[in-house]
Amino acid sequence: MHKTSLMRIDIITVLPELIESPLNHSIVQRAKDKGLCEVVVHNLRDFSSDKHRKVDDYAFSGDAGMVMMIEPIFAAISFLKSQRDYDEIIYTSPDGEMFSQAKANYISTLKNIIILCGHYKGIDQRVRDHLITREISVGDYVLTGGELAAAIIVDSTVRLLPGAMGDEMSALTDSFQDNLLAPPVYTRPAEFNGWKVPEILLSGNTKLIDEWKFEQSLMRTRKFRPDLLEED
Q: Is the C-alpha dihedral spanning 103, 107, 113, 119 positive or negative?
């Protein structure tokens, strides 16, 4: 099998142009430039045996909407698996498990993953039954396709890779890392238009500042996301 020291993410999609832009800027691009990760986008149509590169068909049930066919998906995944071993094959689906910071942390520890972007009315169930190892939803709403969901998964995962961010501690203090929302943040000037930065942040007392940050995080979480405090 091909071996690499990179985290490799292969994305299978019917709309490569929709996902390429978010992956070519900011932290993801810097991580790629540093050799921390490799993100490769594959056009599912390249794996179609149809002369018109068709990848969808009508559902046997007669329901409205088109369904992504099993054959090109099987061909794409089989091709990729012939090149390397994969830790997870993820399908972006509205009925998958809800994506979270904890899941981003987990995925960031993996070596090779495939993300299959859902589209149309979904994919042939046999793909989900036999090829997919994990299904992920980014929220309780429906997108036109899974490309934006895949971009969210990649962005939130790659930024956690050691060396991806300029400040290594920054990711550790993000919202949701400890099931708490982040505390308020301020910068200069200390007073603007009569609005003042809390005195504690100007005190230089690290212990008191840390206590204030924790209290603020807890208060904001109780107010805006009490559900986070109920999680195990």
A: positive
DSSP class of 77: H
pLDDT one-digit tens code per residue, 55-88: 999 998 777 789 999 999 999 999 999 999 999 9
Whole-angstrom distance, CA of residue 212 vs CA of residue 201: 9
Q: State which residues form the domain around 182.
A: 175-230
Mark whether 150 and 200 lie in a shared domain.
no
Length of the chain (residues): 232
Structure tokens at 132: 């997919």
DSSP state at residue 61: T
Distance CA 151, CA 90 (A): 13
Element (H, E) at 149: helix 147-158
Residues 219, 124 share a domain: no
**Cβ contact 180:217 at 8 Å:** yes
Q: Are 113 and 88 in contact (CB under 8 A)?
A: yes
Adjacent-strand bridge partners of 13: 43
**Residue 92 contacts residue 150 (beta carbons within 8 Å):** yes
Helix (H) / strand (E) element for 182: namely none
Map residue 116 onto helix, strand or coil: strand
If asked whether residues 151 and 91 sit together in one domain, one would say yes
CB 212 within 8 A of CB 200: yes
Instruction: Please name the amino acid found at residue 181.
Output: L
**152 lies in the same domain as 200:** no
Supply the CATH number for residue 48's domain.
3.40.1280.10
**pLDDT tens for each residue of 80-126:** 999 999 999 999 998 899 999 999 999 999 999 999 999 888 999 99
